[in-house]
Design goal:
Largest sheet: 5 strands, antiparallel
Order of helices and strands: HHHHHEEEEHEEEHEEEH
Number of domains: 3
Structural class: alpha+beta
CATH topology of the largest domain: Helix Hairpins
CATH architecture of the largest domain: Orthogonal Bundle
Radius of gyration: 33 Å
Distance between the termini: 116 Å
Length: 273
């Protein structure tokens, strides 16, 4: 076996050496392509960021550039090895069709990523609710969108699921209305309760003057008189204001003797003959 290998090498020494050189050059081209793709995608990313382009768009375009450059350099490397790229492209096209049929989900995610970039329902840093999850958008990749939740969990959602349902963008507008419903007992002083709520909102600088807050009776429920409290605030102040108003309502109502009732039922018993 060894003698046959030595004899084969002696008979084909020139061809083996020539192919080895081509292989080394092809590998150099391939790894040079990786370096160029990485550098070019970073350069384009930095240039777009300097122009204040959204980070989600920058991430997506950088991924596209990286993939395109790698494909180009791979074809150059194969061509240097003597592979007919025209035939290879034909084979690649046929294989691509078969792969496309097998990977319909991935192509759907890619198409959805393109739609996200074109229509931009959100941008990096926005607080959104999509596909049953709520979080801050980190970036949009070719096939998936990365979110970070309030408790610092990283969630990766396929792009097709992002565009396949309703998208709630909490950061799209600068203002948000804080919707609260406060119940008081029928025995409590309704006017005093509304006065206290008005004072709570007026004392908080985060409550906007325009639009004006709304305090009104919304329903006479089974166990309570329902009051709606609807101040407006900047989007970033929404949750802190929501929590603080609830706390102030409980403290002020307790001090004023206004009862916040729990569900209850009055049972009347009649004695029969």
């Amino acid at each position: 076996m060894l003698e046959q290998a030595v004899k084969f090498f002696e008979n084909n020494q020139q061809m083996i050496v020539s192919f080895s050189i081509k292989l080394v050059v092809a590998l150099i081209i391939f790894y040079l392509g990786r370096w160029v793709a990485f550098g070019l995608s970073r350069l384009i990313g930095k240039a777009l960021l300097l122009r204040h382009v959204d980070k989600a768009v920058v991430s997506f375009l950088s991924s596209i550039v990286n993939a395109a450059v790698m494909i180009a350099f791979t074809l150059i490397a194969l061509s240097h090895l003597g592979v007919q790229t025209a035939s290879f492209l034909a084979i690649l096209g046929a294989a691509g069709l078969a792969i496309a049929l097998a990977l319909q989900g991935s192509l759907s995610n890619f198409a959805s990523g393109v739609l996200i970039i074109i229509f931009r329902p959100f941008k990096a840093g926005d607080m959104v609710e999509v596909a049953g999850i709520s979080g801050v958008v980190q970036r949009v990749d070719m096939f998936q969108t990365i979110f970070k939740t309030g408790d610092n969990k990283k969630i990766i959602v396929p792009n097709s699921q992002v565009t396949g349902g309703a998208i709630i963008n909490y950061s799209a507008e600068g203002k948000r209305r804080v919707d609260l419903t406060i119940g008081i007992s029928y025995d409590s002083d309704l006017r005093l309760a509304k006065q206290i709520l008005t004072e709570i909102l007026a004392a908080d600088p985060r409550v906007l003057k325009d639009p004006e807050p709304v305090i009104a009776v919304s329903a006479l429920a089974d166990s309570a008189v329902q009051l709606i409290v609807r101040p407006w605030a900047l989007s970033e102040h929404y949750w802190p204001l929501y929590w603080d108003i609830l706390e102030q309502v409980k403290l002020r109502f307790d001090a004023a003797g206004i009862e916040i009732p729990f569900p209850q039922m009055s049972l009347h018993m009649k004695k029969g003959n």
